[in-house]
Design goal:
This protein has 281 residues and is of the alpha/beta class. The protein contains eleven helices and eight strands.
Length: 281
């Protein structure tokens, strides 16, 4: 089973990329499970027809309240099949103000593993959509505990998205030494400044020692599909945007490169790289 984690700054479009990637992989014939690893539990909304599905930790709390453990949870109460045939899971989070959200995500992932969800549904590709603004010990757990083997970073031309991606790369560098996990590449989800992004993001990828995988343009088609609660390859299969996501899926399936990244340790170096491309515009 391929285990792919999508990390990036909050609001950068991780869930859009993850959901459309899941749909494209499913269209290629793979059995896909997408796991939302964010307390907001909105990762799978596009695939679920615009609705929010129940979260694993909600079900877990209900079982604990009646004196039962995780083995009392039924898989069909936490795993939902989308109209397009993709298995959907939302980890959820702890009660507000109580506990660590990142460790809550780990609990949810461990429940899936203990209940043999991946074997039961014969999953070929698991996509983990992980919050990455702050790379705390909790949110690094999908990497640390071996759930995520291939890490893809999402960023745009905004400096803070590149800064966040560099911080995530630092965490991957530290944790990849413990096993076969590695950075597999960078995907650009454009904020609209395409010429600048097509220059600066590949250079950033080179600094990290990884590949630039795909450029996803800012598009009204993608935005309209989100509003409709549909993946692009399902809603607008003949569009150029759908072809972009199919190409992304193909590139990821064919990619067997997982590196220990070489993040930029000097913030001034990162800023200099960014400013050089600003001047060239």
């Amino acid at each position: 089973m391929r285990q792919i984690a999508i990390y990036g700054k909050g609001g950068i479009g991780k869930s859009t990329i993850a959901s459309n990637l899941s749909a494209a992989l499913s269209g290629m014939g793979y059995t896909v499970m997408q796991v939302g690893c964010d307390p907001k539990r909105d990762s799978t909304r596009i695939l679920a027809g615009g609705r929010f599905i129940p979260a694993v930790l909600e079900e877990h709390r209900e079982q604990l309240m009646v004196g039962k453990d995780e083995y009392a949870i039924k898989l069909d109460h936490i795993v939902f099949k989308s109209p397009g045939g993709i298995y959907l899971v939302e980890a959820g989070g702890p009660e507000p103000g109580v506990g660590c959200a990142g460790r809550g995500v780990l609990t949810a992932l461990q429940i899936l593993k203990d209940l043999k969800a991946f074997e039961t549904y014969k999953i070929d590709v698991a996509i983990y959509d992980v919050l990455g603004d702050v790379v705390c010990g909790g949110f690094s757990m999908p990497i640390r505990e071996g759930f995520a083997k291939e890490i893809y970073l999402i960023c745009s031309g905004g400096f803070m998205s590149i800064y966040a991606a560099n911080n995530i790369a630092r965490a991957v560098q530290r944790l990849a030494k413990r096993g076969d996990t590695g950075l597999a590449g960078i995907i650009c989800n454009s904020n609209g400044d395409e010429a600048f992004e097509r220059a600066v993001i590949p250079e950033f990828a080179k600094k990290l020692g990884t590949s630039f995988v795909q450029f996803v343009p800012r598009s009204p088609v993608i935005q309209a599909c989100e509003m409709e609660g549909r993946a692009v390859v399902e809603h607008s299969p003949g569009s150029k945007e759908a072809e972009i996501f199919r190409n992304l899926a193909k590139a990821i399936i064919e990619n067997n490169s997982q590196v220990i990244p070489t993040p930029v340790n000097d913030l001034a170096e990162l800023e200099t790289m960014y400013r050089q491309h600003l001047v060239k515009r």
